Each structure stands twice: as structure tokens, then as C-alpha cells.
Amino acid sequence: MSGQGGAMGGATEAVIFDGSDTAIVLDPAVVPQAAPDWFDAGHWRALGALRSGGGGRGGVLFIDTPAGECVWRHYRRGGAVARALDDRYLWRGRDRSRGFAEFRLLQRLRALQLPVPVAVAARVRRSGWYYRADLITRCIPAARTMAEQLAATGLDEGLAARIGATIAAFHRHGVYHADLNAHNVLVNAQGIHLIDFDRGALRPPQTAWQQGNLARLKRSLLKLGAARDGAEAFERGLWAALLRGYRRGPQA
């Protein structure tokens, strides 16, 4: 195994190679090393440190690691193409792989002091023209998704405004979230966090894509029954509160 270190976005990273077709990237400030067996369910099961998870196309696993409680996500495709390719993606270079790209974006967002999970490690495994990818991040403690909050006790306008203000903070930094929905907004006692930045990017702030992010979140909420008291009540209440928080920004 060999490694190389570097700096990106204000964070230190080390890339560790395991053979010719597998690479692991990690943040040594979070964990000194991450061997290939970190991405082996049998390893964590043998230690009694593996817990099942949920959410996302392929689901996630929760693991108790030396870096703390973490979420391990294996990237899988969605839609019709999933039938043919499942968890395989076209190889365009290690640094453009899904896991490495999201790992580095999370590091940059943390450097901007935005509320996102801590990136622990990512792995890419190449096989010919294709590759498979994984990402490990620290859990957001004692959090529930916006969708879970809606189902359990509903969303009040104060919380909606805080969520809007948090999204505004990301948008001010040009952070594009490719799948901003109620399952990717986490709420805990410390505040609001956004998760799942697969295919996310830093872009010049523009109204079109920012409004597109908000529209996607709105569709998600409507699909989950946020307008159970009627569309007009939703627009004038919950959604209006979220937009007020968004316009006022993170200082609201």
C-alpha cells in the first residue's frame, strides 16, 4: 500500500492505493488510516459494529468506527439504467469518481463552515471501463430527516424558516445540491444539516438553479403530504415561512 498527501479546499487529504484498481482517499485529521476492510461488511459484522440502515437508492449501513459512528453508502444508480448497470459507473478517472468527488466537495463545504457531514473516507474500485464507489461519513447525532419530522409531529413555521435560512447559506456560497428533498435535510438540537451531495457542485450563484433546488424540495414536501390541509394553506403557511427564512438568510 502506498500513499500521497495533498491539500484541497483548506483540508488535508491522503490518497492510499491498494493494488492497481482500488484507491482510498481519507482525511488523516479524522482517521489516521482506513484499510480496505473498512469497506467490507464482514469486517464490521465480526466486530459487532455493523447496523443496518435505510434511505437512498441502495440504502446505507451504520458502522461504529474508530472515527465514531459513521454512515457507509455504496453508490447505486436509479431509474431505468439501474436495471442494466446497478452500481457501475463509466470510468473517467479516479478523481472524477462519485465517491472521490463527493468526499472532496464535503471537505470544501466544511472549510466554508457549512453544516454538512464530516467526510471520513471514500473508495473507488475500477473494473475495465467501469467502477464502483463507496463513501463513509460521520453520522449527524440524534438527527431526523425533514421527512421524518413531517410524518412524526409535522413542521412548524419556525422550523421551516430555519431550514430556508440554511439553504440560503449554501446558495450564497454557490453550492448546488443535485437532489434537495425532504430526506436530505436533517434536523437536530444543534441545527439544520444537508446531506447527500452526490453530483453536487460549486457554481456561480444564479437564480435559475437556486430556484430549481427550492422547487425540488417543494415537490418532495407535497409528495409527502405537507399540504394535507390544502394547497392554499401550505402555500401561505409552511412554504411561505420557508421562503421568508430563505430571503432573510442565515442571520434570521
Structure in words:
- The chain has 7 helices and 14 strands.
- The relative contact order is 0.12.
- Strand 1 (about 1-10) and strand 2 form a beta hairpin.
- The model is unreliable at about 1-10 (pLDDT under 50).
- The protein is globular.
- The longest helix is centred in the C-terminal third of the chain and has 18 residues, at about 230-250.
- With about 250 residues, the chain is of the alpha+beta class.
- About 35% of the residues lie in helices and about 30% in strands.
- The strands form 3 sheets. Strands 1, 2, 3, 4, 5, 6, 7, 8 and 9 form a 9-stranded antiparallel sheet that branches.
- It has helices at about 40-45, 80-85, 100-110, 145-150, 155-170, 205-225, 230-250, and strands at about 1-10, 10-20, 20-25, 50, 60-65, 70-75, 90, 120-125, 130-140, 145, 175, 185-190, 190-195, 200.
SSE diagram, text form:
Blueprint: E1 2-8, E2 11-18, E3 22-26, H1 41-46, E4 50-52, E5 60-65, E6 68-74, H2 82-85, E7 89-90, H3 98-111, E8 119-127, E9 130-138, E10 144-145, H4 146-152, H5 157-172, E11 175-176, E12 185-188, E13 191-194, E14 201-202, H6 207-223, H7 231-248
Antiparallel strand pairs: 1-2, 2-3, 3-8, 4-5, 5-6, 6-9, 7-9, 8-9, 10-12, 11-14, 12-13
